Amino acid sequence: MQIPKEGDYVAIQSYKHDGHLHRTWRETMVLKTSENEIIGCNENTLVTESDGRRWVTREPALVYFHKHYWFNIVAMIRESGVSYYCNLATPFALDKEAIKYIDYDLDVKVFPDGEKRLLDVDEYAAHSQMWNYPPEIDTILHHNVDVLIDWIDKGKGPFSQAYVDLWMQRYNELSHH
Prior knowledge:
- This protein has helices spanning 121-130, 135-154, 161-175, and strands at 9-15, 21-33, 37-42, 46-49, 54-56, 61-66, 71-78, 81-89, 93-94, 98-110, 116-119.
- The chain is of the alpha+beta class.
- Strands 1-2-3-6-7-8-10 form a 7-stranded mixed beta barrel.
- The chain is globular.
């Protein structure tokens, strides 16, 4: 697979444990790729749900994927401040089609005032039973929730305002806003 370059557009595809396509984001501009991570930004991009519903994102969103962590982070840039939506998911895979990952239901939402909420615990429990998540998955995901909370509390990586400012500035330069 050719690694996307800065300024290239890629699709993002989220799958569920049983292999079905869950959600697709049509275009995300790549801002940085390294051996272990991809940083991108999308704005007004078409999102298609597994049931065929389609909608368009409203605000710019920085996306962060890492090869070694079982989460990805979406920083939504809003008038009221930055909100974060963190998906507990497999590390990303990249092929000629898209950035891909398996979404494991659990999400951590961080509000502009810093409040954190663990979401979709019931959905995780239901899918865990329905699709027989192995115990190792449960252990890995709970460990990664702890890592994520630590990053949030310490303002690490995507959770720092300097990171948001830097990558939004780069997106604006590349997209000639």
